[in-house]
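Q: Second attempt. The first request was missing the SMILES, so the protein and calcium ion are both included now.
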Amino acid sequence: MIPRMRLVLLLLVSAALPALAQVRPDAPLPSTLTRDLSKAAVALPNGLDGFPLGCDPVVNVKEGTLLVRIPAGQFILGSDRWPEEGGEAFAAVLDHDYYIAAHEITNAQYKRFVDATGHRPPVEHDTDGEPEPIWQGNSFPAEFANHPVSGVTWRDAVAYCEWAGLRLPTEPEWESAARGTDGRAFPWGDEWDPGRCRNATIEWTGTAAVYDFETGRSPWGIYNMAGNVAEWCQDGYNGGQDYDLYKAGNLSLRPPNPDLHVTRGGDWYTCEFDYMLRTSQRGCCAPGERHCHIGFRPAMTP
Ligand SMILES: [Ca+2]
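A: Got both inputs this time. The predicted holo structure:
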């Protein structure tokens, strides 16, 4: 079967699936979560507009991250349109619900972590020529409070998540959250639109606030899964071996790799072409590296 026909069939199957598990709004929550959205670290610009019914928005009490619930089920991994890395599109099934942050972790959130734990602030970048970090000492200019933190290593991101009682998403969880069930090429649909995310296809403009780009949200209502900062995933990166396992139905966490960990989503600084911002794009970086274009968003298992 030619790739395009196969993808059409996958999309038809996906379209027939329920869009969301129905989560009762009064279902019990662990004490670490609340449905009181006034506790969110970053106020939602438009309330719950754009979040699908049943996604059960909750706030992580410890540090205010807004999380939405993604249901177990089938989605599409990979791409026929840009087959490098992930290879051709295929249907995969996640066997568990999970929560994932609606936004990237902000500088203000990260400062509370630094202040509470004494963890190293993100004051250095590891590549010559990158812009100077906006952090100086333990702080940053106030106008960047709701921009994503960057200059954090994979280990920094893991430390934040452990402090917060959360974890980094796995790579399949990230891709499912970015593209919903219909296998779309970008979080908003199949057509590239440079105005729907912060990217470098036009010019370098630095990071944007984590709730900017309302029209670039994923089907689950999640912000900036394309662009702004690329995001660390929990998994080690092992090239095509990872996708071979995913294709075989094994979506479990890939083991740590001392040399490379997965990053996803593309960013404001390095992504000069549309294919670098697609939902199936795979990036990777050494777990100890710090860059101006890599941050993270947490997840958790209910
Ligand atoms: Ca991002």
